[in-house]
Amino acid sequence: MAVYSRLYLSLCSLLLVMVLVINATHGHSAEEAHEQFQSLKNSTMGSRLSEENVPNHEHAVDDPEMVVSMVDMSIRNSTERRKLGFFSCGTGNPIDDCWRCDRNWQRNRKRLAECAIGFGRNAIGGRDGKYYVVTDPNDDDPVNPRPGTLRHAVIQDRPLWIVFKRDMVITLKQELIMNSFKTIDGRGVNVHIANGACITVQFVTNIIIHGINIHDCKPTGNAMVRSSPGHYGWRTMADGDGISIFGSSHIWVDHNSLANCADGLIDAIMGSTAITISNNYFTHHNEVMLLGHSDSYVRDKIMQVTIAYNHFGEGLIQRMPRCRHGYFHVVNNDYTHWEMYAIGGSASPTINSQGNRYLAPANPFAKQVTHRVEQSEVWKHWNWRSEGDLMLNGAFFTPSGRGAAASYARASSLAAKSSSLVGSLTSNAGALSCHRGYQC
Q: 134 vs 13, 139, 164, 395, CA distance in Å?
């Protein structure tokens, strides 16, 4: 009996040691993964030297290829954390896996500001300010907005994280002109900006627009509109874009649903840069996204935009996006509908398409993903490439330029992220339905 007792105690001791070793190893791995992710998020970007005689822009990044590689690193880290079981609800989408598994997301709303990737990854919005609760959906006076309205919130001179008291439909009389360091956060309620003017982001910085429905935007203008507590002025006619980004930087547009506007759903022009457009759901529109003002406006050479994890859905025709000049990383998006083409451009933009899923329409004359507004003798020198994309129903991407040149070298590892995963990466694109006390 004594022998069996000693043997039993020895086995128990051995099991205890093994449990302690396993826990220590797991804890160390989790800590290392967390530190690696935080290191990625906290690194900074310098100013990029513009080409030829184009003026410098303080928010253009020094090396766009490095940012593309950082996007890939975030995707890899997110996938590895999911494999290790750190997030039971993880999808491999690094933005969503950064915050959506938190049941207390409503108390930790500002964590979202740590989760952007790509060229707009440094957009902090109103992270460093107070919360502002919108209680009134009305927009009776664009010059003297009432406290509690969305317009009163976005024009303030201080950082603000703007949330909504309840579900609401906001019909704007004139453009909603945003001031710098603002977050519009529609999580937890159902907010529509619809049937009137929509959002203008002009000559500002650090804007996050998250979790709202934007649709049926109409041209407005020839009116006085306030843009800050101390300034209002005459606005000429606006085109009716869903979100118009004009001469602005550090902009992140994430998890919104956009449809059926008079002009573009999202347009970024006039030297805008450091932009990420992610996790959005686009439907029922002709000219979806314009990135670049005109072929002659060379200041748009500083433009750098990441387009990631979006779903380009039913009823879309063209411009997903349409690019000029600049540098555009199109990664892990789901293109399920287009009538003319998906990605277009002019004025020699650099377009890096990686890990997307392209489903061509039935029309045999619209199978090509790409469209160039130039003669082939000119566009054959533009750097456009497809790497790891999934082409369905006869879809094809016409590459050009230096497909294997140094301009793509630091982004080549992204091909390892299979386009077969695009369905799960984009399955929750658009405005989310989030409820207190539950994972969003």
A: 60, 12, 5, 45
Among positive and negative, which fits the CA dihedral 173, 178, 182, 187? positive
List 224's β-bridge partners, or say none: 234
410-435 per-residue burial string, b: 16 or more CB within 10 A, e: under 16: bbbbbeebebebbeebbebbbbbebe
pLDDT at residue number 29: 39
Beta bridge partners of 176: 199
Inter-CA distances, 355 with 257, 311, 372, 433, Å = 22, 13, 21, 27
How distant, in Å, are the alpha carbons of 81, 103, 114, 423, 431 from that of 88? 10, 12, 20, 18, 22
Write out pLDDT tens, residues 357-412: 999 999 999 999 999 999 999 999 999 999 999 999 999 999 999 866 666 543 33
SS3 167: coil
For 33-57, the pLDDT digits (tens) are 344 434 433 333 333 323 334 445 6
Q: Confidence band (pLDDT; 50, 70, 90) for 439?
A: very high
- Parallel/antiparallel/unpaired status of strands 223-228 and 231-235: antiparallel
The 10 Å Cβ neighbour count of residue 267 is 26
Domain definitions of the chain by residue range: 64-279+289-312+321-336+408-425
Q: How big is the chain by its Cα radius of gyration, in Å?
A: 24
What tokens were used for 299? 């200041």
Report, as residue numbers or ranges, the catalytic residues.
319
Architecture of domain 64-279+289-312+321-336+408-425: 3 Solenoid (2.160)
pTM for the full predicted model: 0.83
Task: Report the length, in residues, of the chain.
Answer: 440
Closest to 57 in 3D by CA, of 219, 198, 248, 232: 248
